[in-house]
Design a protein that fits this description.
heterodimer; A: 0% strand; B: mainly alpha; two-stranded antiparallel ribbon
Chain lengths: 155, 504
């Protein structure tokens, strides 16, 4: 019973979040101030129409999901959440640490999260260095793109 | 007539070493992404999108076309050998191909899949090249109210093809439309939904949405998915494949019949023109049609070569069809062409009949790439790399997805040299991950994002030109035509549902 309730909660998470998002969107739509009148179909019209359709579809989904016993995919969110944290950290330090160091650390973190080369730390480090170097070559040399560098270092 | 000369010149441009190199590279990338379950040609082109900022437009488009064609074909490889379709459009091929594989005729099935893909791809590309001038002339007849009705038709089709999940289709599409409304209004110089920030005044770029929806969400999705133990299965399958068995016997081809190849190709092309429908629907409809009129229907499900031929001809021919609405109206026929549209826009090319009039030299090599990829690269790749194809699925996931994450994120950065774009890609990746987990069609989100501004612009322009009279949509013949078409589609697909289930 508890499992069934948590499954329903999981399935309702997306529509309820979107419902809140749509409400914020509608509130912002009413703050649009047109420079000139276009009649009914002005700058607010499509946003409000899209929001109305969204509400209708979301309430239909919530009504259906409450009746349905199974559906959607379950599974632990720990792994994806860890990847989101690693990615956010990578984005945060990308310019500050430069491409090479930040990408090496990011790839190494992903290897750990995907259990790649588990129990072989040296191989993991070598592969992370290789991935960093290969994509540096691709972006910097093949496509001539200037990537951020660590202050005082050439790469 | 000049168009055909320019198309021929496109073949000449494709023969230049740079364009040729990018076509072959694109084909190899597309084959890899198409063959590995979970990766698709859409993801391959999405990853390529930021790089196109630093490429010339011709090699970028040539590469996109070859990725599209090879990705569509390569899905049949793992579908046949280990019963896991590399791409959703290869589901029908998996049914018949794997049945043949179990009988020890896997190489033969791969040969038939390649032949069907080759014929379908060539027919699709030829129809695209041959009918393009006509499509351009027809598109000139469509006025602003007609364009609104056409975009509306596209959005309705995108939603109703989500069979059984129409509400989720509406949510994903409207979410895309809502995201597209962020930024400066389409008619008046006022910002909308910027929430007092400056960064949102310019609106949301297509690139972080594409990277987030297709690349970041895939990495998150795969992080959660449990990896099946494919290694043993792969080794067994690889051992059974010999190069000499790839060539289909003439008697088998005659049994399938030229009519099956051609009819499936034409059907695939036609389905490709419909917005948001894609290769899965093309393969299914052609497969179902071939089964219905087959002389040996009992073979279906047990290894029908005719079924493979019909499905593969149709899904590869769809590639040609999908380019028509994208090039003429900026309405993508499928997610891959949606991203190719991004490549065009990034390079300052505006879809429409004028693109064909004034910039055929840029578009023609892409058409040529579609044709050459189908005619030469599909059979050549099968013959050269065929025995090793199946082994590519055994690449470690950690390595694969780490590479995808790096290309996606650094790619988002290099497009505009903005860390904000990387952050947006992550945000859309998280959003798409949760949507995918609950079976919301994320492709609809992208198509809603692309079509939303067009819908709004044409609607408001039409009304402003007719002094706010909404009857303009009924009195304008082109608009009326598309509105009736929308009504018919809605009736046949949503009200009077087909008996056989159609994959979305």
């Amino acid at each position: 019973m508890a499992e069934s309730q948590s499954s329903v909660a999981g399935r309702l998470g997306v529509p309820i979040s979107l419902l809140i998002l749509t409400t914020v969107y509608v509130a912002a739509a009413f703050q649009i101030r047109p420079q000139f009148s276009e009649g009914l179909v002005g700058p607010r019209f499509l946003p409000l129409l899209a929001a109305a359709l969204m509400y209708g579809a979301l309430f239909t989904i919530i009504w259906k999901e409450r009746r349905q016993r199974t559906g959607g995919e379950s599974g632990s969110l720990i792994q994806p959440a860890a990847i989101v944290v690693a990615t956010a950290a990578y984005i945060g330090v990308f310019k500050w640490l430069g491409y090479s160091l930040s990408t090496f650390l990011f790839v190494f973190a992903l290897f750990i999260l995907f259990s790649y080369q588990a129990g072989r730390p040296v191989r993991r480090v070598i592969d992370a260095l290789a991935v960093t170097a290969v994509f540096y070559g691709l972006f910097a040399f093949v496509f001539g793109i200037r990537l951020p560098v660590f202050p005082g270092l050439p790469l | 007539m000049s168009f055909f000369f320019e198309v021929l010149q496109g073949f000449g441009a494709l023969a230049q070493p740079e364009a040729l190199g990018f076509m072959v590279l694109g084909f190899i990338i597309g084959t890899f992404f198409g063959a590995v379950p979970g990766l698709t040609s859409v993801l391959a082109i999405a990853l390529l999108l930021p790089i196109t900022y630093s490429m010339d437009v011709v090699p970028a488009l040539v590469m996109c076309a070859s990725i599209f064609m090879s990705g569509m074909y390569a899905g049949s490889i793992t579908a046949t050998t280990i019963n896991i379709p590399g791409a959703p459009s290869s589901m029908m091929t998996a049914i018949e191909g794997y049945a043949l594989m179990k009988k020890g005729q896997g190489a033969n099935a791969l040969g038939h899949a390649a032949l069907g893909s080759m014929i379908g791809g060539c027919v699709g590309a030829l129809l695209l090249m041959g009918l393009m001038p006509l499509a351009a002339k027809l598109s000139l007849l469509i006025q602003t109210p007609g364009k609104f009705a056409l975009v509306l038709f596209a959005l309705v089709v995108i939603i109703i093809v989500q069979r059984g999940e129409i509400a989720k289709g509406v949510v994903a599409t409207m979410l895309g439309v809502m995201i597209a409304t962020i930024g400066i209004d389409v008619m008046q110089p006022i910002p909308r939904f910027n929430f007092g920030t400056e960064v949102l005044v310019e609106g949301i770029d297509m690139m972080p949405i594409i990277i987030g929806t297709f690349a970041i969400s895939e990495v998150l999705y795969q992080a959660q998915a449990h990896s099946a133990s494919l290694k043993l299965q792969v080794n067994e399958a690889a051992a059974k494949i010999r190069r000499r068995d790839f060539l289909p016997a003439w008697s088998e081809i005659r049994e399938i019949g030229l009519f099956t190849y051609l009819k499936s190709s034409v059907m695939g092309y036609g389905i490709g023109i419909l917005p948001g429908v894609g290769g899965s629907m093309a393969a299914f409809v052609s497969y179902a049609d071939a089964k219905r009129r087959s002389r040996k229907p009992e073979q279906y499900g047990n290894g029908s070569r005719e079924g493979i031929a019909a499905a593969e001809s149709a899904n590869n021919s769809m590639c040609g069809g999908a380019f028509v609405p994208m090039l003429m109206f900026g309405i993508p026929g499928d997610p891959t062409t949606a991203i190719v549209l991004g490549v065009l826009v990034i390079n300052g090319l505006q879809p429409g009949p004028r693109l064909l009039e004034s910039q055929t030299d840029l578009i023609a090599p892409m058409f040529a790439s579609l044709f050459v990829s189908a005619l030469i690269l599909i059979p050549l790749t099968l013959f050269i790399f065929g025995p090793w194809f199946v082994r590519i699925v055994s690449i470690p996931r950690g390595l694969l997805y780490a590479c995808i994450a790096v290309v996606a994120l650094v790619g988002s950065y290099v497009a505009t040299f903005s860390v904000f774009q990387m952050g947006l890609a992550l945000v859309f990746g998280i959003l798409a991950f949760f949507l995918r987990k609950q079976n919301y069609p994320t492709v609809s989100l992208l198509l809603g994002f692309i079509l939303g501004p067009d819908l709004e612009q044409y609607l408001r322009r039409s009304l402003s030109l007719s002094d706010g009279n909404p009857l303009v949509f009924l009195t304008s013949p082109d608009s009326l035509f598309f509105l009736v078409l929308t009504g018919l589609f809605f009736y046949f697909m949503a009200v009077r549902k087909p008996k056989e289930p159609i994959p979305a």
